[in-house]
Amino acid sequence: MTVTRRTILGGAFAFAFAASGSVFAAKPLVMGFSQVGAESEWRSANTASIKDAAKQAGVTLKFADAQQKQENQVKAIRSFIAQRVDVIAFSPVVETGWETVLREAKAARIPVILTDRAVKVADKSLYVTLIGSDFVEEGRRAGKWLADYAAKSNKPVLNVVELQGTVGSAPALDRKAGFEEAIKGNAKLKVIRTQTGEFTRAKGKEVMEAFLKAHGKDINVLYAHNDDMAIGAIQAIEEAGLKPGKDIIIVSIDGVKGAFQAMIAGKLNVSVECSPLLGPQLMQAAQDVVAGKPVAPRIVTEERVFPAEVAAKELPNRKY
Length: 320
Ligand code: GZL
Known about the structure:
Elements: H1 5-20, E1 30-35, H2 41-57, E2 60-65, H3 70-82, E3 87-90, H4 99-107, E4 112-115, E5 129-132, H5 135-152, E6 158-164, H6 170-183, E7 189-196, H7 201-215, E8 221-224, H8 227-239, E9 249-254, H9 257-264, E10 270-273, H10 279-290, E11 298-300, E12 305-307, H11 311-314
Parallel strand pairs: 1-2, 1-3, 3-4, 4-5, 5-11, 6-7, 6-8, 8-9, 9-10
Antiparallel strand pairs: 10-12
Helix pairs in contact: 2-10, 3-4, 5-6, 7-8
Bound molecules: beta-D-galactofuranose.
């Protein structure tokens, strides 16, 4: 564990106090945070959680929205290094292309914390920890729910279309892998189309319109990697004169309020929770790493599966 600048500074403060008898107010921790963007309800809730938690913890937050562009995140991280922040945190829009900038942060002796999404780097010392969900498990849970549904269906085969998240992002890669693992060898489930909807409502609607144009009533199931794309697809399904949640069964991930409302309206069949409320864990990890305390290399959030039948009861309890 590298001795951080702040630990040395902390010692200096202690010495100054002992020598001079006067007290210095400890300088608030300064965090640079690079956020993916504002592409979904989930992301907005994640941003709110981080900003609220920083305020609660007395952390000075320098926040940068990358508008889903990796080059903007790299620029923001370089700016945080130049400003000599105490800690850098970010949710990487895609898994690859981070080695160079993370090496620059390491050379500047500024610890880096990943939230939400993972990066693929050979040198694991380039970041302290990853705080966030197990996306493969989320994909498995979506696939298992659908396999249980298919087992009870009187249709010989259910044709599935898939709206993937952002190309190259950890949630898109892992949710696809987990879903495929859960339905592998299931003769009743056949994925006939898969394409990115970029985690947004607009793109999810646009791609679902294309799926419907090509396959129409042959589509039995939609698997969407997030609720926002599912909600966009619901609009496309209704505009095509079909009933979402009935003619086309919809399985989605995130568990945002919009999904609960769609389930209560009978238009969405299940949402697998993916909690965006990572702010408090992030601030705690930041304070620990800056104080030189050990931090677990992986902090996984606890999550549930919400089928439509529990949506009305659960909605009042939802925090995002
Ligand atoms: C998952 C997060 C994903 C959400 C989407 O942790 O990275 O990005 O599932 C969001 O809603 O856009």
